[in-house]
Amino acid sequence: MALIEQLKEEQKLAMKAKDKTRLGTIRLALSAIKQREVDEQITLGDDDILAVLTKMVKQRRDSVAQFEAAGRQDLADAEQAEIAVLEDFMPQPLTEDEVSVLIESAIAESGAAGMQDMGKVMAVLKPQIQGRADMGKVSGLVRSKLA
Hints:
Layout: H1 3-17, H2 20-40, H3 46-69, H4 73-87, H5 96-110, H6 118-129, H7 135-146
């Protein structure tokens, strides 16, 4: 089942279950997807939708950190609940070992010799790990392997 249909089906189920948090989060996701489709005048595929969901999760993680720093645990908990709902639609996260193997193969595939080739390695890695690992951490791992 395509990701957009899965989101719409889950929206119906959340309505029937009267789960306001889940329903609101799914509506936000569908709205963000629709906004990108209208802005770019295209129909998004699963990879593009996954990128939108990944961006939404990243924004919420940033918000959680800011709310906790400001002592607003109630708002941080609400953001955490939204992250949990969004992660239901994302692929299974990669383990550290799997990420290391992918990094090694990307370095070999791109023929990277040093830090100047970081962009090449990341270009190979990004489609493989989009939504399945934190790109910031992966970037740090690639840096350490190339240095």
